[in-house]
Specification:
The protein has 491 residues and is an alpha/beta fold. Helices cover 52% and strands 6% of the residues.
Length: 491
């Protein structure tokens, strides 16, 4: 190894060491979900080491070209030192941040970085604000900087800087290691895919064997999630047989035995009530006593369960809010890849709004945050909904085919990284619905809440758990806000 390559060597060892530490931490977090055996344990770390090297090769490939083409007389020059030291610190910072961020991402999704991480990267403002409000940011940055300083001191102690700058290695001496690295990168890039780490029957073990950063770029390139990995499926013939057995109402039937087209006959009088649909962010059935929840966190929802039409066998088909909106508005199961909300040509679809439109209803989508997030504003607007949201003033005003109304500063008392509080959102809905009622036209309002989302913050003194404590407090706040909304709506 030429002296000119000593920083490259030290950087590689440092990154591989941190990758090993992170994989160990993730293995501990996932231990109860893996099929533990000594052989599998060794295979996970061996395959992981292989993918960590592959991930590292992309950066080394760029650096080794710089090392190769820089003439000997410029070794250790001011320009050489500035470029080398700056990029060494920058890329080491990026790797350290990526490694640390993998831990909370794993706790949330039990996966290495995937398309969800790519998806969130597009909404930098919301994500950065969420990180700032959810974690002790000064402490996190301090930890990253401390690790960075220790890593740089390790490189200095090994005299990596000194050897990199003070040498007379010729082009020829640098050629062989450069050739090895570039050839390895070419082979890895052309013949190794992220899926080749999936050699286990256990999904968690497959994920542990991957490299987080490499998985991120693989997800960015493929632009999709593995549908079969995240969702169990049934053969089509079995699905149709299940449908035939379950759709047996006198006024409801399938047209054929191998299609989902249905015919529904209504013999009663058609009513046109105003309809307000409320989508509650991240609410799980386990919080409700109606679903055998052990704690009284949702008294309002439980009271509705006992005094209304209550579906006990209706399940979400997606893992995220955007998928829930997709399912509710389009009546479709979770689709592979990007949500339809964010795909091209997603305008003028047959949504739930189209059904209400045919019955003479106005349609409005309410969201307490900026509907730019997850492309909600464009999706609903280009499918006939007026928009009421908290548009961020730093974002350019979009030309939309329907009306867009902003939730103004004087209409809110609390706002976090994602949106105004549920109470503020509901107050805006009531104010808007009163105007809709005065127009003597039936209306359908689609509301999407946000309070039950990390950082779990909400107005003080509304529930008995302090704001920002945990999800339990946000669930209680969600329920309390709904109770206030229903009481005000009845007046």
């Amino acid at each position: 190894m030429p002296k000119r390559f000593q920083l490259l060597k030290t950087f590689s060892l440092t990154v591989l060491f941190f990758a090993f530490i992170v994989r160990t931490i993730l293995y501990i977090l996932a231990f109860k979900y893996v099929d533990f055996s000594i052989i599998n344990f060794i295979k996970i770390f061996f395959i992981g080491f292989f993918f960590d090297i592959g991930n590292l090769l992309y950066l080394l490939g760029i650096y080794v070209i710089y090392l190769l083409i820089t003439p000997t007389r410029f070794h250790g020059s001011l320009v050489d030192k500035v470029i080398t030291k700056f990029l060494y610190g920058l890329f080491l910072f990026v790797f350290i941040f990526s490694f640390l961020a993998e831990i909370p991402f794993w706790q949330e999704y039990q996966r290495r970085y995937n398309f969800i991480a790519v998806d969130y990267l597009l909404y930098t403002y919301e994500v950065v604000q969420n990180i700032h409000q959810s974690f002790p940011l000064p402490l996190l940055i301090g930890v990253i900087v401390l690790i960075l300083i220790l890593s740089i001191r390790f490189a200095s102690k090994k005299e990596a800087y000194k050897k990199t700058f003070n040498n007379s290695d010729s082009f020829k001496s640098k050629l062989i290691p450069s050739f090895i690295i570039l050839i390895s990168l070419g082979l890895y890039h052309n013949f190794i895919t992220n899926s080749k780490a999936e050699v286990f029957s256990n999904i968690n073990e497959n994920e542990l064997a991957k490299s987080g950063m490499y998985s991120f770029f693989a997800a960015y390139k493929s632009n999709e999630l593995n549908y079969n990995e995240f969702y169990p499926t049934l053969p089509n013939n079995k699905v149709y047989n299940l449908l035939l057995r379950n759709i047996q109402s006198p006024n409801d039937s399938l047209f054929t035995k191998d299609n989902i087209l249905r015919y529904t006959k209504n013999d009663s009088t058609e009513l046109k009530p105003n309809v307000i649909f409320i989508g509650l962010e991240s609410l799980n059935a386990r919080f409700m006593e109606a679903f055998n929840g052990k704690k009284n966190w949702t008294p309002t929802l439980d009271s509705l369960a006992n005094n209304s039409i209550f579906f006990t066998n209706l399940y979400a088909t997606g893992t995220r809010t955007i998928r829930g909106i997709e399912a509710i508005s389009l009546a479709i199961p979770h689709t592979p890849g990007r949500s339809i909300l964010k795909r091209e040509n997603n305008d003028n679809l047959f949504t739930i709004g189209e059904i209400f439109k045919k019955k003479g209803y106005s349609r409005t989508f309410f969201y307490g945050g900026d509907g730019h997030f997850h492309n909600m504003t464009n999706y609903f607007s280009y499918n006939g909904f007026d928009i009421v949201d908290r548009r961020k003033l730093h974002r350019l005003k979009e030309e939309l085919p329907t009306n867009r109304t902003r939730i103004e500063d004087d209409e809110m008392v609390f706002e976090n990284a994602w949106a105004v509080s549920d109470q503020d959102l509901y107050n805006k809905v009531l104010k808007y619905a009163d105007k809709q009622h005065q127009q003597k036209e039936p209306f359908f309002d689609f509301i999407m809440t946000s309070s039950n989302h990390k950082p779990y913050t909400y107005p003080d003194n509304v529930v008995d758990i302090p704001s920002g404590t945990n999800m339990h407090g946000s669930v209680k706040y969600l329920d309390k806000s709904l109770d206030e909304f229903l009481k005000k709506a009845k007046k």
